[in-house]
Amino acid sequence: MAWNGTSIRSTLRILLRVIPIFSMEFVLELKLPIKKAFLYVVKFIGVLRLARIMTRGGLRILCYHGFSKIDESQFRPETFMEPSTFQDHIGLIISKGYSVISLPDALKLLHKRLLPPCSVVITFDDGFKTIQQYALPVLQQYRFPCTIFLTTYYCIKENPVFRLVVQYMFWKTANQEVDLTGMGPPFFGRISLLPNSSRDNIIWQIINYAETELLENDRQRLAMELGVRLGVPYENIFEREALSIMKTQDIYSIAKASEIDIQLHTHRHNFPEDRNAAIHEIEDNRAVLEPILKRRLTHFCYPSGIWSENHFQILKESHIESAVTCDPGLNYANTPRYALRRFLDGQHISNIQFEAELSGFMEIMRRLRNKLRPQPKKSV
Questions:
Q1: pTM as predicted
Q2: Closest by alpha carbon to 151, among 66, 240, 253, 235?
């Protein structure tokens, strides 16, 4: 179907008849099977193609995290993705003819309003070890550039991420209770692991205690003991490396590829609004990465997507050129460079959902919803 003024108007009339059946809020919050069916209908009548034309000037920034080796995608589908799903979504980018460009190039062209239509930037948060194994070979096959925002505490400690280990163990265990007696001052007695128990509170008590009161070696000993009591061996998690960050030697290895751009993500995956503490996080992050990469790093990713306009001056003082959030949406010349939007892809995103996001259709739905029901300004 060739798009012209008549066909666009015709499709818009169909869209305006279909969409009111659902409120904009309802479209965005549909249960997955219904949402997928709805999006297939929208695609069939040509609306995704229309959305792509309407949003062709917007920069699409995609965000990925780690990849599943055994069952991590079931544990945390928004964080750990099956390699086959990633290949499917990259295949959609290729088959639909989207232009994949680097983040620095995209920002320069966006500022000048010279961006190729429907340009895509691929980014990875945290720097999980599995990115190197599963994602980079796929991207290098097509010579697609990417940016890895790498947090460095576990990069130099070379242990799995403690809080993920604890959460995974409690998710994985087949036990109905756990005896925490003797594990440390805050923990004692038998704890039920059944649904509707205090399980989540216990998980966060363990994480908060270990991260604030214990040194790294003591945290790992705690994880080992917890694994014994839950029947989820820590040694298996350590050896599998699915919950681990790239080591310094991994960075040396991948940095040789010109298509791979490694950038800042704080040292401890924490970015407070306190100026001195925030600058310290950036400086510690740089202190690990820049000697390896032998260049100044100027792009940044907010840990966990938590950001505030109070951070902007801190980033400016740290000579940061751009910062990406986890807020969904497209980016234009007037998008604040310290609040760039991204789409978080993951195992929970079906192919049709991914295609709808790429086309800009879901962004149009969000805009319409916000016009009908204005959202409070984000500042966290």
A1: 0.89
A2: 66
